[in-house]
Design a protein that fits this description.
1077 residues; mainly beta; Immunoglobulin-like; Maltoporin, Chain A; 2 domains; 22-stranded antiparallel beta barrel; 6 helices; 65 strands; 3% helix
C-alpha cells in the first residue's frame, strides 16, 4: 500500500503516492528554508501506562494568546508544530480523566520538546496544574549547537554589544582576535571560525534569511566592524557542525538570530553605555610621556513592543546608536632626521653614522622628484633601526557613527495561520586614520573613509494545513551598500597615469607604505533576493521535511586595483647598480631610482561591474523515531549555481594558462557542476531511557559557495581593463622604462570545483544535576576544493622564459584545489538559568591544518597571500591562520540574594573569562629570491635553528614583545630556490582576559525598573599581544607574515621578530544605565 503525503501550497493541498523518488521530484515543487519554529510532542497515558487516544491537547502562548489544538492519535501520541519562540501553557483533557495543565513551557527556536503526560482518573472539571518540567537535554536531534538566551545577551559584559562577542561563548567557536574592521566590506575580514571551517564559511541568518555579504563571504556587520542590535534579539542559536539538510549556502557553522516580537502588553527599554579615556588604563604601546590617547564611546538605544490589536496584531521596534572617537597608537617605520638630509649609514661601517657624527654617513643628493614625497614621511621619533630609519609613534584620531533600527509586525489571521514582516537598517560611516594591519603598515596622514548601509527585509507566512502538516513561506532581501573612499588629504599630488586619480602607493622595502592602498577606492553594492518555503509532515514515527530555495544575486561596484599607481623601491644590486649604504631601498628612493611601476591604461581602467547569478537549492529530510529511545535522521540536499553573467557583457578569462596568449571574451567558467548533492545522516540515542543521557552522532557533506569576488576578479583582465608594468621606469614618467608590458592581473580557474567539507562528530551529553548539563565529544572535518591564490605563469630560470611563453605577463590565479583537516575534543558544562543563577564553561582542544586559509590575497591578514611554490601546494600545508589549539571560556550571571526578603537585593554580577593559545604566523622574505617574477610572492627562508632562543639584532632576548623570535634562526636560501621553513611554523602570544559587570536595579513601580552599573573589560589589564608583523603587501589587508631578510645580501629586515600592537583593549570601564518598562 503506497504511503501518502500532503503537499501544500497556500490553502489547497492534495494527496500523492510517493516512494524514494520523492526526494528528487519534490525539489522542483517546493522551496527551501530553515525553520525557527518549535515543536511540542509526547505521549499521553493513564496511571496503568496504557495510552490515551483522542485526548484534547491545547497550547497557548502566554504573551500573544496564540492557541493551537490537536487530538492524540490511537497510540496516544500528539504533536504541536509551528510554535514561535515564547512561554506557553499546555493543557490536556479527556472525559473520565482529570484535566492537566503544564505552565511555563519555555520554547526556544527550532527546538523539539518532548512532554509525556500521565492523566489521573477523575472528573474532567478537576484540574491538576504543575510547573512544566522539560528535559534539559534534547533527546531527538543529532545536530550539535548551543543557545545564547535573551537573558545572557542583556546581562553579560559583551564588549561593544557585538553579536560575535556572544557567539564566542559557545564550544567549537574560535575567535580571530587579530581581526580588524575591514575596509573591503561591511564588517570584519574574519569574525569567527567554527569547528575548523574558514571564517567566510560561517552562515549568519536573521529570522531564517541569509544575511552574509555575497561578494566577500564575510559575516554581516556595520561600519564599526560590529554587529549591533542585540536588544532586538530574542535569542542567538549557534549550530556548530553537521547542520540539517535544510541549511545551506555556506559549509560551516550557522549563527541563527531570532528577532523579538510584540505581545499583548506594552514593554520596552532605554539604554546608555558610556566609556572614555579618563576611566581607561594605558595601552602597552602608548607613549608614557603623553596622556592616554583621546577616547569617547557612547552606545544608546530604545525599544518598545506591544499590541496593535489584542491577540491579533503586535509590533516591536528597536533603535541603537553608536558614536566613537578614538585615537590609537600606531608604530610606523620612516626615515630618520639624517636620512631627510640625504645621509645614510655606510654598508661597511654603519655604526659611525650618528647625529653626533654625521661625517661618518654616506651622503646622497636627494632628487627633486623624490623630495616632495620624502616630505610626506615624518621624521622618526622613536627607536633607531641603525639603517637610516626609525619608529614613528603617532596616535591619530578616527571617528565612527552608526545607527541601527528594526521594526517588526506580527499578525495572527487565526490560530493556524500567521504572518510577520521585519525590516532592519544599519547605516554608518567610519573615518579610519590608518589602513592595514598592524596600524603602522602605512605612514600616517592617509586616512580612509568607510561608509556602509545594510538592509535586511523579510515577510514570512506560517500556516498549519492540518494537525500533521505545517508550511512556512518566506521572502527576503539582503542589501549591502558599502564603499571605501580616499579623503583627499593631499590634493594635487598624484603618481597615476590616469588624470584625476588620487595619490597611489610608494613601497620602499623595509619601511611603512607611503600613500593610499592600491586596492581602494572600492564599492560593494549587492542585493540578494531570496524566496523560500518549507513543508513538514508527520506520519506516525516519521517527520518529513521538504523544500527548496531560489536566490538571485546582484553585485555592483568597483574595485580599483592599482589604478592610482604603485612604485616599488628595492635593492638594485642584483641588477648591477651597487648600493653604498646599508639601506639600499631607501638609498635608491632618495635618488628617485625605482625598480618598477604598475599603473593603469588611461583608456580602460574602469573596474565597475554588475554581476548576476542565480542559485536553486532543494532538500529532503526524514526524522525517524525508531523507538522511544532512538531517533535517526537522513537528509539529502542539492544545490545548483548558474554561470555568472555581467549586465554589459564585460566578461573575460584565461581558459588555459598553459597555452593561451591572453584572455578570451566570454563566460568566466566553462560551466557549473550539476552534481552538488550533499547526503547526511545522524542519530540521537537516549541510552538509559531517562532522558538524561544522550549519545548523538552525525556525518555528512556540507558545501560552501564561491563568493562573487572569486569569479569577479576577471574585471582586471583585458580587453575591458588594462594595467601596465614598467621595469626600471623613470620616476614620475614611467613610460620611459627599460621594459614595458601589460599585466594579466588575476583570473579564476576556468573549470572550478565547488568547495565542500566532510564533517563528522560523536557527542555524549549527561544531565549531572537538575538543569546542569555535561557534554563531551569529538568533532572532525576535512575540507576539499578550497580556494587559494597562486602564480600560474611563473618565470622559469632554467628555460629563460615564463611557463607559458605565449603569455609574457605574470598571472595570479584563483584555484580550487586546497585542502584542510580539523580534529578536536570538546567538553562543556552549563547550568540553565534558575534560582537567579546561570553559568557555563567549555574547553576546546583542537588542531586545524590547511594549504591556505583565505580565498584571495586581497583579504589575507596575518598570512602569506599566495602559495610559495606554484607547483607544490602541499609544501604550504601548515597550521591554519585561525588555528587555536586550546580555548577555554567561562561565563556567569548571578542575581545576588542580599538581605532577608531581599530588601537590599537587586544586585547582579556577571563575568566572562577567556583564555586561549596562540595564533600562528609565517617568516617571509621581502624579495623574489626564487625569481618567480610575480606580482605577489610568499617566499620563505630556510630554518636553521631554534627561533625561540637567543637574541634579536636589537639585543633583546627572544620571548618579549620587542623580540618575540630570533631571526638568526633562519638562513637565506640559495638564489633561485624556495626556503624550507614551513608556512605558519611560528606562533604568537596567547590570550587571557577577564571581563566583569556589576549592576544594581531599582524597582520604581509595578512593571518599571531602572538599573545602574559598571562593566570592566580586561579587568586585570593584561596586555594581549598580536603576532609580529613588519611587512604588508600593498595589494592586501596586511600582516602578511614577518619579514626576516629584506634583500639578497642577507640583511635582516627592520624589526624582524618585533610585535607592534595588541589585540583587544587595555582595561576599560564602561558605565551603564537602563530603564525597563
Amino acid at each position: 500500500m503506497p504511503v501518502r503525503v500532503l503537499i501544500g501550497f497556500g490553502t489547497r493541498f492534495r494527496a500523492l503516492p510517493w516512494g524514494a523518488p520523492i526526494l528528487f521530484t519534490l525539489f522542483s515543487a517546493i522551496a527551501w528554508s530553515q525553520t525557527q519554529l518549535a515543536t511540542v510532542f509526547g505521549t499521553i497515558t493513564d496511571p496503568s501506562g496504557a495510552v490515551v487516544p483522542q485526548a484534547v491537547v491545547t497550547i497557548v502562548n502566554q504573551s500573544t494568546g496564540l492557541k493551537r489544538e490537536v487530538l492524540s492519535d490511537l497510540t496516544g501520541h500528539y504533536r504541536l508544530a509551528g510554535l514561535p519562540v515564547g512561554t506557553y501553557v499546555l493543557r490536556m483533557e479527556k472525559t473520565g480523566f482529570r484535566t492537566q495543565v503544564r505552565e511555563g513551557v519555555a520554547l526556544t527556536s527550532a527546538s523539539d520538546v518532548m512532554i509525556n503526560v500521565s492523566l489521573a482518573i477523575g472528573d474532567q472539571p478537576q484540574q491538576v496544574s504543575v510547573t512544566a518540567s522539560i528535559a534539559a537535554i534534547d533527546n531527538t536531534t543529532s545536530t550539535v549547537g548551543g543557545l545564547v538566551a535573551e537573558h545572557s545577551l542583556a546581562e553579560l559584559p559583551l564588549n561593544g554589544r557585538d553579536l560575535f562577542s556572544a557567539v564566542v561563548l559557545e564550544p567549537g567557536v574560535a575567535p580571530t582576535p587579530s581581526s580588524a574592521p575591514s575596509l573591503l566590506s561591511s564588517g570584519k575580514a574574519a569574525q569567527v571560525s567554527i569547528n575548523g571551517m574558514r571564517p567566510s564559511w560561517t552562515n549568519v541568518l536573521i529570522d531564517g534569511i541569509d544575511a552574509n555579504d555575497p561578494v566577500f563571504g564575510f559575516s554581516p556587520a556595520g561600519a564599526s566592524g560590529l554587529f549591533l542590535g542585540l536588544n532586538e534579539l530574542a535569542e542567538v542559536r549557534v549550530l556548530s557542525q553537521t547542520v540539517n539538510a535544510d541549511y545551506g549556502g555556506n559549509g560551516g557553522g550557522v549563527i541563527e538570530l531570532v528577532t523579538k516580537s510584540g505581545s499583548n502588553r506594552f514593554h520596552g527599554s532605554l539604554t546608555e553605555f558610556h566609556r572614555d579615556a579618563s576611566l581607561d588604563a594605558r595601552n602597552y604601546f602608548d607613549l608614557g610621556s603623553l596622556a592616554i590617547p583621546p577616547f569617547v564611546h557612547n552606545q544608546f538605544g530604545a525599544n518598545i513592543g506591544g499590541p496593535l490589536v489584542h491577540d491579533r496584531t503586535f509590533f516591536f521596534a528597536n533603535y541603537e546608536g553608536f558614536r566613537e572617537v578614538q585615537a590609537s597608537t600606531a608604530i610606523a617605520t620612516v626615515p630618520d632626521a639624517l636620512a631627510h638630509r640625504g645621509l645614510l649609514p655606510s654598508a661597511g661601517d654603519p655604526s659611525s653614522c650618528t647625529n653626533a657624527s654625521p661625517n661618518g654617513c654616506v651622503a646622497f643628493p636627494i632628487d627633486p622628484r623624490a623630495r616632495q614625497f620624502l616630505n610626506l614621511l615624518p621624521v622618526s621619533n622613536g627607536a633607531d633601526n641603525g639603517n637610516g630609519t626609525g619608529d614613528l609613534i603617532t596616535a591619530d584620531k578616527g571617528n565612527t557613527r552608526e545607527d541601527h533600527g528594526m521594526v517588526r509586525i506580527d499578525h495572527n489571521f487565526s490560530n493556524t495561520h500567521s504572518l510577520f514582516a521585519r525590516y532592519i537598517m544599519d547605516d554608518g560611516s567610519s573615518l579610519v586614520p590608518y589602513f592595514g594591519t598592524p596600524p603602522g603598515s602605512y605612514v600616517p596622514g592617509f586616512p580612509t573613509l568607510h561608509e556602509a548601509r545594510n538592509q535586511y527585509f523579510t515577510v514570512q507566512d506560517r500556516r498549519s494545513l492540518g494537525h500533521d502538516v505545517f508550511n512556512e513561506l518566506r521572502f527576503g532581501i539582503n542589501r549591502t551598500a558599502a564603499s571605501t573612499s580616499i579623503p583627499d588629504a593631499h590634493p594635487g599630488l598624484s603618481i597615476s597615469l590616469a588624470p584625476g586619480r588620487p595619490f597611489g602607493t610608494i613601497d620602499i622595502a623595509g619601511m611603512s607604505l607611503l600613500g593610499n592602498s592600491a586596492v581602494i577606492p572600492l564599492g560593494d553594492f549587492s542585493t540578494v533576493y531570496q524566496l523560500q518555503d518549507q513543508l513538514s509532515h508527520t506520519m506516525r514515527r516519521h517527520t518529513l521535511k521538504f523544500g527548496a530555495e531560489f536566490r538571485r544575486i546582484q553585485s555592483n561596484g568597483p574595485l580599483d586595483f592599482g589604478v592610482n599607481g604603485l612604485y616599488t623601491f628595492q635593492d638594485l644590486s642584483p641588477f648591477g647598480l651597487q648600493a653604498q649604504s646599508n639601506n639600499p631601498a631607501l638609498e635608491f628612493f632618495l635618488q628617485a631610482l625605482p625598480l618598477s611601476y604598475v599603473g593603469p591604461d588611461p583608456s580602460r581602467y574602469d573596474s565597475h561591474r554588475s554581476y548576476r547569478q542565480s542559485v536553486v537549492s532543494g532538500f529532503a529530510q526524514d526524522f525517524w523515531r525508531v523507538s522511544a529511545h532512538l531517533t535517526v535522521n537522513f537528509g539529502l540536499r542539492y544545490d545548483f549555481y548558474s554561470n555568472p553573467s555581467e549586465t554589459h557583457g564585460r566578461l573575460s578569462t584565461i581558459r588555459n594558462p598553459a597555452i593561451d596568449s591572453g584572455p578570451t571574451v566570454g563566460p568566466v567558467f566553462a560551466g557549473t557542476p550539476l552534481d552538488l548533492f550533499s547526503p547526511q545522516a545522524g542519530f540521537a540515542w537516549n541510552i538509559f531511557g531517562d532522558r538524561k543521557t544522550v549519545l548523538r552522532g552525525r556525518a555528512g557533506v556540507f558545501r560552501d559557495q564561491l563568493p562573487v569576488l572569486l569569479f569577479s576578479v576577471d574585471r582586471f583582465l583585458p580587453p575591458f581593463f588594462g594595467l601596465t608594468s614598467f621595469v626600471f621606469p623613470s620616476f614620475l614618467h614611467p613610460q620611459n622604462a627599460v621594459l614595458t608590458q601589460p599585466i594579466d592581473v588575476l583570473a579564476t580557474t576556468y573549470h572550478p570545483k565547488f568547495p565542500y567539507a566532510l564533517q563528522y562528530n560523536l557527542n555524549l551529553q549527561r544531565e549531572i544535576a537538575r538543569g546542569t548539563i555535561l557534554s563531551a565529544g569529538y568533532f572532525g572535518a576535512r575540507g576539499n576544493h578550497l580556494a587559494r591564490e597562486t602564480e600560474e605563469n611563473a618565470f622559469e630560470p632554467a628555460l629563460g622564459h615564463r611557463y607559458n611563453p605565449n603569455m609574457p605577463s605574470p598571472l595570479l590565479a584563483e584555484l580550487t584545489d586546497a585542502q584542510s583537516f580539523y580534529n578536536s575534543f570538546q567538553v562543556s558544562v552549563s547550568k540553565q538559568y534558575a534560582h537567579n543563577l546561570s553559568w557555563q564553561l567549555f574547553y576546546t582542544w583542537s588542531h586545524s591544518i590547511d594549504d591556505a586559509s583565505s580565498n584571495f590575497s586581497i583579504e589575507s591578514e596575518n598570512e602569506p597571500p599566495t602559495t610559495q611554490d606554484p607547483d607544490d601546494r602541499k609544501g604550504s600545508r601548515g597550521r591554519s591562520a585561525f588555528d587555536i589549539r586550546h580555548n577555554f571560556v567561562a561565563a556567569v550571571v548571578y542575581d545576588l540574594p542580599f538581605g532577608s526578603g531581599r530588601p537590599f537585593g537587586g544586585w547582579q554580577v556577571s563575568a566572562v573569562a577567556s583564555v586561549h593559545s596562540n595564533l600562528p604566523f609565517t617568516p617571509v622574505l621581502s624579495f623574489d629570491n626564487a625569481d618567480l617574477q610575480s606580482l605577489l610572492t610568499s617566499e620563505r627562508p630556510d630554518l636553521a635553528g631554534n627561533p625561540y632562543t637567543g637574541a634579536c639584532p636589537n639585543g633583546d632576548r627572544a620571548g618579549s614583545p620587542s623580540c618575540w623570535f630570533n631571526p638568526s634562526a633562519f638562513a637565506l636560501p640559495p638564489p633561485g630556490q624556495f626556503g624550507n621553513a614551513g608556512r605558519n611554523i611560528l606562533h604568537g602570544p596567547g590570550f587571557a582576559q577577564f571581563d566583569l559587570a556589576l549592576q544594581k536595579g531599582f524597582k520604581l513601580k509595578e512593571g518599571t525598573k531602572i538599573t545602574f552599573g559598571a562593566e570592566a573589560y580586561n579587568l586585570f589589564n593584561h596586555p594581549n599581544f598580536a603576532v609580529p608583523s613588519n611587512t604588508q603587501s600593498p595589494l592586501t589587508l596586511g600582516g602578511n607574515g614577518d619579514t626576516v631578510f629584506q634583500d639578497p645580501a642577507g640583511n635582516f629586515a627592520n624589526n624582524a621578530g618585533r610585535i607592534f600592537t595588541t589585540v583587544g583593549t587595555a582595561r576599560q570601564i564602561q558605565l551603564v544605565a537602563r530603564f525597563d518598562f
